Amino acid sequence: MNWLNDFVAQHGSLIKSLITGTLVAVACSILGSFIILRRMAFLADAIAHSMMAGVIAGYLIVAMFFGEGIEFGALFIGAILAGMFTVGMVGFVTRFSRVKEDTAIGVMYTGIFAFAMFILSIKSFAQYIQIDLTHYVQGYVASPTNSKLWLAAIVTTIVVAVVLSFYRTLQLTTFDPVMAASIGIPVLAVDYLLTTCTSLVVVCGVQIAGVILVVAMIITPAATAYLLTDRLDRMIITSAIISAVGFWLGFGIATLFGSSSGPATVVTMTIIFLLCLTFAPRYGLVADWIRKRSSVPQEIKEDVLGCVLRADGEAVPIREVLRHVENPDPRIRVAIDSLAKQGLLEIESDHVRLTDDGEFQANRLVRAHRLWETYLDTTKTPKQKIHAKAHQLEHISDPAIVEYLDDKLGHPVTDPHGSTIPSDAGQLSGRVMASLLRRGHRATVAEIQSDAEFTGLKPGDMIEIAPRQDDGKTWVIVDSVGREIKLDHAQADAILVEKVEIA
User: Fold this and answer.
1) How far is CA 1 from CA 4, 8, 59, 449, 465, in A?
2) Lower CB count within 10 Å: N or C terminus of the chain?
3) Whole-prediction pTM value?
């Protein structure tokens, strides 16, 4: 105990500085996790700058009307009120004008900060304002007072208590504010609670990093944690650890070189961020480079499937695939291995063959290619360019886009070259429109809509599809008694069928 008492007596100021700085760093980082996820970083910067006006106004009012000795209260209350005023003005301008939020923040915080500088420059007021601007801008935690230590402890306790008490509410309003509002959560009140906490941590952060760099203590550790994890709870804990480590290293560097602790702390945190940006196992630049280098574009995989499909179910030598697909040899081999892992190809010695799933996907690709060729032909694209353009567009094979294109083209049966456009087997399950059926398909009528009532068909009737007429613009349906019914596109859409079979 005597050793401990002696150590505290000799290094009490250092211990107090480390405790104060650690508390502030942890409080800033915990709140920073919600701020960056809500994209409020610019607003936090605005609060930090506008706090200058609050502090100056607080000092001025207290000194003029109450005398000296309560500067701490002026700092605390003035800063919070300035932050709340800034947020309120930003919300007012955004809501009642056409000015967007980012522009409103830029206008209001610079205006409020300039107002603080204007008041500070008036000589008749300067005698009442006792602010060390150097420490206020750069931060200074080498010799914190007991009041600052207690402030850091109280603010950290408040922030932790708020996050623990309202974690689910904060989580929901952060990720899905619309849903939060729909279930009765007061989103605006939560926003103001978060803003109040931000003002509190800014008041504390000024002690370490100063009014300019305090935003970095809020944002940088949280941004670093964002690169390392996908879960909010882990992000908060990781951010707090990074912030505390960054402060300790920064404080040590500042002590070693005799510099200000604020810039040293922020530089240290920034270096940690850059290291994680580069080497993070999942979202780092190196991991992304390795992932891109080892991956194969979907276009190459689809080209391989299309090449193997042309063999009509036979095994294709890999050398033939390499010869027909226009890409570097190593990438094609990686594509073949990847397709085999997905169950779309079977590799037999030096040959490849489509599986059932692979044939299904390859047919979808061919269908998309020929539909795009048909579409390009309707736009008067030169004949010699249609195939190359369609080869580029076929990889836009989102089913919804392809089906929309098919419908707008009138469900064509052949492309401009006379090749058959495959039907999508996935379309023919369940209840579908008769316009999707091809020659030889049989089905049971499920529903007749108003446009097709004239046909006399009823639910439960069996029908078969005959060849189309008028260049594919007229559908011909044969009912169970052999009667031919001719329909246009809209009328064929009005007949819904099920239990589709191929004759």
Assistant:
1) 5, 10, 43, 92, 97
2) N
3) 0.62
